[in-house]
Amino acid sequence: MESDERLRWIELHVTTSLKPKVDDLKLLFGSEKSRATLLEFLTNEDKKIVYVFYHNGVLNANQDAPLKVDGKFIVFFKIQSAVKITRENINHQLYYMEWSEDFLQHFEDVTRNVFLPILSVEQPGGLSCDRLMDLLHKILSSSTIMSGKLQSMVNLPIPNIEVLSSAGHFHHRQQAVTHILETTLIGWIKQIKNALNDKPNTPMGSKANHFPMPKTEVQFWHKHLSTIQSINEQLCSPQIVSVLTTLEDRNSTYAHSFHNIKRDLAKAEHETMTIVRFLGTLEPYFTLIENGYKLHELIQVFSPMMHTLLLMWTYSKYYHGPDQINRLLQMIANLVVFKAREIVGEAFIDDPESQGFLRQSLKICAAFRGTYLDTKDKADEINTFKVEEQAELNEEQVGVTWHSSVYKNARTQRGAGLFNKTRNEHEYEENFWEDSPWPARNSPVFDVLNKYMERCNDVLELVEVSQQFKKIKFASNLDGAGEPSLNSQIVDIVNDFDDALAQFNCSVKNVLDLDKGLPFESAFFNFHSKVRDLESQFGMLVAGSLKEGWDIKAKLRLLDVFEGITTRDLIQTVLHDILSTFIEHVEKELQSTKQLFDQKMNKKTSHQHLSPVTNQILWLRSLSGRIEELYYKMTKVAPMCFDGERGWRAKDLYKDLCRKIKFTEEQTLAAWLKNFDHEVIENLNQPLLRLDDGLFHVNFDEKLKIVLREIRDMTSHDIPMKLPHDVTQKIENIDILKLQAVNTRLSAATSQFNIMEQNLLDIERNLVNHNIDRARKILTEGVTTYTWNDVHMDDFIQEAIHVVYTDNIKIVDTIKENYERICQIVNSWAESTFQYTMMDESHWPFTFEDYDARQKSIMEDIHRKMKTGCKKIVQHLQAIYEVVKISRTTPQWVAYKEFVNTKVINGLRDSILISLRYIYNSLVAQELQAGSGNTQFLQVDVSLVGSIVYFKPPVDGSLAEVSMIEYFDSWLSAILTRTDSLKELDLVEELKSCIIEDQDIQHLCEQTKAIVADTASECKPSMVPKKPLSTFSQPVVLPSATKSQISQRLLAQVSCGFLLSIKRKSKGKKRSYVHMSRNMPTKTPEEIENFRPDKKT
């Protein structure tokens, strides 16, 4: 319980200070580790302090000071040691304090604003407040200096002015205040002097990198300038000005000496700014080198960079010194080595690409060295001239100071005599030219560069030898040597090389590591000695194999297989005697080629895919390539074969044959060039187009094609021809691709225009007649005015294509496309009407009510489709109107609109006729298809109720129910009123008049109505012979008879084409149906569709 009370006390202060979350607080006091730490602090007398802090979002308790905290933390510590904390003494024995995560700043603020004001006040008891004030200011100064060092800055510690001002009111304490201010000023002087004495060659400036780079120099001086400017800003602060003013008022000697420090600080700032400006001229080049990756880009940077460095050495007092310029040159050389090393990457001896990377690296270093040496010559010349000039002046002038400006070659007298001696000496010192020669190429300044280049050469030899032996191994694995015994011996040599290379790799881990030069040198010497022994063995094996070779080709193939290794000097020395016999074969091959050339020189070779002149030149070049290949291979694998008299004779024969082939090629080309103007210019002067039978065609004949093909072949990159300058200029003016493109474009335009004119209807031509006339006028200019070499040809082609495609083809296509869509819409009315008539026979027969409902649904669908199609027709007409751009009142547009209206009227007529034919055919046809079932599609119910006969629907319209005749009248009327669907075309009245006047439509309607009327009139049973037809619309009482008798009599008398359902209703029994129909002649579906009744039908 006692422990819990103490923990509650700690929990209360933690909660008040850190304001943790409830879960964090529970985790702190619930965790065994944190709880044990807190209890140990409370119970163990040796534990004096405990920290409670957040770290990574977790609240912790630890007896060791935290290295990093999140935000502020709280510290609990005991006032007295060897005291056990209880709940009675916890308020008196435990103190707590809050600290922020910035320890030094917090300590400085607490010391300055809390402890120093409290402890600097005079207190009874003999306590020396001046001593405490002095000690606290020293502690505060140390804290400020340390805080600045952590931030790589120079922070001048400032005393607490308020405290010192309060203490200065007492006369007996003024001496202590003056002592504190002077101590602070002395500290400032030391800090400023240390900052001004900081140079790049000090440990602070050079320890950043083992091989310092130029950016290190630039960063140092920028940092140095920032430090000086920061010190100047601090010295201008009101607190420091107050300190200096107070010390000057009290005649302190340190205050007067501090002004000298300020002058030194201003001078240092000026010098540093000058150095920074000079370095700023070189900094862009350093950046280009660091970021560059292409070889030519890096090499191009060296010359302007070294020239800028030369100017800086000439005009900068600081970098004119030998130590400074040498240090900067060393840094630049290190940068070049670093970049060259970066290009190589991780250089591996077995990597084939390492050879190219090493050569690039060496090129970069060599380019830098060459640029440096050129710049060094200029610098030495300037330095020699300045030194001699200054020595000459010193000897001639006595008592007079002459100034030789580094900016000018002229000499200017600054003063004379002893009266101006001090000023002249100062100016002489400012403008004195110090002898500062640039270091030689082997100077220690370039030690890293020289070592790196030497190492790259050694590694390059390693890589080359490794790749050559790798080729040998690959060839031996493929039996490249030709004999198994020879292959096995070569494999042994390659294995020995691999062992030597593996031993070298074990000794040297990184071949480009310059810090470990001694292991590399010894390992490389051993490896090189072993390689020479292996090359000697390999040379003896190849010599034996060449002696056994059966012909020159096999021997050359063997040498070609081991191409890389046979170029080694040691191996060529071994093979010299054997390779000398190869020259005999070369001489024979040259004689054979010469004989072939003499025999077929005047004969024409035929290759259909090439033009004649180009074909002849290619044949000559193939002969030249035949001998060049052999000659090149010999010079490559056995260059020593051409030494001696026989070798010189073969060389002469080769050169003589090459001259003859070249002369013949030149003669062939000259003959073609002689007729070039006649063949090319005349053909290009032909017109672009020709007119045949009123149609336009491109005038690009075969002769012109051959000429252009010859030019194309001769100017091809695969067949380079050396043509005269004037011919080259003429050919350059002949754009073959352009001419071919013109041919293609004009052919497409003219063919499209011809097709358009041939396919255009007269009614459509009237709409675009003005555009067609304009296009024909422009194309006619291609027949009469423009030629293939006309400079204005492009404008003509552009205009012609624009007129043909934009003003004609595009418009005509729009007219055709929209008219085609109008036709599709109109045709779809008849197609959809026909599809609606093709009803499923399995649902036949229909009652009149069902068929009436179905007919209404069909009519609604047809009306909706025709209405939608009508809107689309209006839109298509509007689209045509917009492209033709003529007035709606013009005769052309009125005629075209009547043309479209006629198409619409015919489509509506076809739709109506299909519906009428279907109804009529359904009444008169017996079968729609062969083998079908019921042939009637409508059903009339005849009900027998006792002896009474009922018809459903009624035969005539005397009853309230809709009669059979009224049904047919409504269907025919609905079909004829489809004209109302085309209201948007403003053709309703015209359509109605056309429908009324159409004989086929009227005849179908009359025939259909006649059939229905005849059928209705025949619906009279024989049992009531004298009763009129109208009486059958009411129930009829028939004499007693059997069902079969009544059915037979009705069937005999009722000869309608409908299906009769005779129903007899008996009380308490279900109705029974008897379906009867009369037979009609059978018709096929085609006959039914095309059936048009006449008056005889």
Please characterize this protein's 3D structure.
- With 1097 residues, the protein is an alpha+beta fold.
- Among the domains are: 1-101, no CATH class; 686-826; 891-927 and 937-1019.
- It contains 40 helices and 14 strands.
- The strands form four sheets. Strands 9, 10, 11, 12, 13 and 14 form a six-stranded mixed sheet that branches.
- A hairpin with a 6-residue loop joins strand 13 and strand 14 (1072-1076).
- Helix 10 runs antiparallel to helix 12.
- Residues 179-389, 419-796 form the Dynein heavy chain tail domain.
- One of its GO terms (molecular function) is dynein light intermediate chain binding.
- Residues 1084-1097 have a biased composition (Basic and acidic residues).
- It comes from Clytia hemisphaerica.
Distance between the termini: 125 Å
Morphology? extended
Overall pLDDT level: 75
Structural class: alpha+beta
How many runs of DSSP E, i.e. beta strands? Answer: 14
Biased composition (Basic and acidic residues): 1084-1097
Domain Dynein heavy chain tail: 179-389, 419-796
InterPro entries: DHC, Dynein_heavy_tail
GO molecular function, one term: dynein intermediate chain binding
Short description:
The chain is of the alpha+beta class and 1097 residues long.
Layout of secondary structure:
Elements: H1 2-18, H2 22-30, H3 32-43, E1 49-55, E2 58-62, E3 73-78, H4 90-93, E4 94-99, H5 103-119, H6 129-150, H7 161-168, H8 174-196, H9 203-206, H10 214-235, H11 238-249, H12 253-291, H13 295-315, H14 322-344, H15 353-396, E5 400-404, E6 411-416, H16 421-430, H17 447-477, H18 484-507, H19 517-547, H20 552-561, H21 563-566, H22 569-574, H23 576-579, H24 582-600, H25 612-637, H26 645-674, H27 676-684, E7 689-692, E8 695-698, H28 702-714, H29 725-733, H30 736-759, H31 762-765, H32 769-784, H33 793-837, E9 846-847, H34 848-884, H35 891-924, E10 938-945, E11 948-952, H36 964-976, H37 988-997, H38 999-1018, E12 1036-1037, H39 1043-1053, E13 1059-1065, E14 1072-1076, H40 1085-1089
Parallel strand pairs: 9-10, 10-13
Antiparallel strand pairs: 1-2, 1-3, 3-4, 5-6, 7-8, 10-11, 11-12, 13-14
Helix pairs in contact: 5-6, 6-8, 8-12, 10-12, 11-12, 12-13, 13-15, 14-15, 15-17, 17-18, 18-19, 24-25, 24-26, 25-26, 27-28, 30-33, 32-33, 33-34, 33-35, 34-36, 35-38, 36-38
